[in-house]
Amino acid sequence: MTKVRASIVGGSGYGGGELLRLLLGHPEIEIAQVTSETYAGQYVYSVHPNLRGRTGLKFNYLSSLETCDLLFLALPHGETQKRIRQFAELAPRLIDLSADFRLRDPAAYQQWYGEPHQAPDWLERFVYGLPEVSREQLPGARYISGVGCNATAATLALMPLVKSGLMNMDMPVIVDIKVGSSEGGNSPSLASHHPERSGAVRSFAPSGHRHTAEVEQSLGLKNVHLSVTSVELVRGVLATAHVWAARALEEKDLWKAYRQTYKDEPFVRIVKDKGGIYRYPEPKILAGSNYADVGFDLDPVHGRIVSICAIDNLMKGASGSAVQCMNLSYGWPESLGLEFTGLHPV
Predict the structure, then answer these.
(1) Who contacts 45 (Cβ-Cβ below 8 Å, separation ≥6)?
(2) What is the mean pLDDT of residues 3-10?
(3) Which top CATH class is 149-311?
(4) I need a labelling partner for 224 at 20 to 30 A (CA). Which of 36, 159, 209, 255 fits?
């Protein structure tokens, strides 16, 4: 059978490198081109050394990009929207990893990103690229947005409580998120001189983080407060959400809600053990995998529920979810090319 010819625009960043790693091992994909204005003419493994011996591809200039079946867009935030019509002429299907098409409301985009959207008429054309949120819209989808890594962890932590009606929707939702250094991106010079075009500065926000808008949009919430700070970790996100129960609860009520929400999700695992080292989700054992581990605890005296989600920000929080969405879009097995389970010990 003929493979799908896919190209990656902006392949020198961490997201592009993860896409390369995943797509090189995907049985249905042939990588046609990978672009980088900075490294054009150089082998991709000169930037992504883990790919040495896996491919002889070289970076191309964007101007030399040819037509293909599928384009992955891994440009800095704000860049894809400026060229979206050009990209749509090059490929019938687009998957954009940036924040450009995650929000449906142009006013919300301007509020959170500080400038008007350059292609507001395209916002409604994109399906939000988190399968646990948008599964029914993904089969056959032509345009798929990326996901925010912090938004992904927060959303998956909160979803069982929203769907089950167990949380008090009138109370504030506080989500404390610890992140690794790779959220800052793979371009130190860009991060220091153009913070608005990179996640390097905005990734670490004790208040007012942009990914708040995605969580509220996905779950229909209005009172979410994200606090994102960095820890000594390269890959990984650990979201700890604090919400208040709508009524008196027992732990069995929470078990029922989490199992009901995630029983058919191939990449979400419930981690709540009474013994062992990893009794709750731990991001470091998820490095390189597309899994999201969720757990919870209950403070019955004060009616507080603590919900936890751990992911690899470059996988389930970016490139892994993009490949998962691609599989669903084409009707392939959802886990195709995403079978890596992570490492232990690490």
Answers:
(1) 51, 52, 53, 54, 55
(2) 98
(3) alpha beta
(4) 255
309 given a catalytic annotation: no
What local confidence, expressed as pLDDT, does residue 235 receive?
94
Q: Which of 68, 149, 309, 325 is catalytic?
A: 149
State yes or no: pLDDT of 197 exceeds 70: no
Cβ–Cβ < 8 Å for 40, 17: no
Nearest to 282 by CA among 338, 339, 344: 344
State the residue for tokens 């009616």. Answer: 303
Cis peptide leading into 345, omega within 30 of 0? yes
Three-state secondary-structure class, residue 143: strand
Predicted structure pTM score: 0.94
pLDDT score for 203: 60
Mean pLDDT, the chain, rounded, equals 93
The structure tokens 């390097």 sit at 200
Residue 187: pLDDT band with limits 50, 70, 90: low
d(CA 246, CA 166): 5
- Report angle CA 33, 145, 286 to the nearest 5 degrees: 85
Residues of the chain with CATH 3.40.50.720: 4-147+315-330
What does CATH list as the number for 4-147+315-330?
3.40.50.720
Listed in order, the ranges of the chain carrying CATH 3.30.360.10 are 149-311
Average pLDDT over residues 231-251: 95
User: 16, 67, 6: which is closest to 37 by C-alpha?
Assistant: 16
* Burial degree of 308 (CB within 10 A; 0-12, 13-18, 19+): buried
* Helices vs. strands in the chain: H and E counts, helices first: 10, 12
pLDDT over 70 (residue 293): yes
